[in-house]
Amino acid sequence: MHMEDATVGTVENVVEVVEHVAEVTEKIAAHMADQLPQDGSLREIAEKIEHVAEVVNNDAEKVEAVVEKIDTVSDEIDAAVEPVIDELEKQLDQTSTPDNGANTQD
């Protein structure tokens, strides 16, 4: 489970970085668009960048929600399965107990 936790943590970190970059890009593009002439092609490009950054940010938020849901469901599955595995291990230990040398030959 440790590798799974590390993977989820890595995905969460990547999503947070993508969100942050998208938010900053969106703000910068909006600011640049406001500073450029209304009918200029550079303003149009800045507005397109702003829109793309907004879409990326929204998608990153959706990915983050999915990752959180996966993490929650995974924890629930672990909690349900762990007692069963523990019981099976106990049963296995009981059936494979050594017979303390009762079958050894001299």
UniProtKB/TrEMBL annotation:
It comes from the Eukaryota. PANTHER family: EXPRESSED PROTEIN, OS08G0483600 PROTEIN. This is Uncharacterized protein.
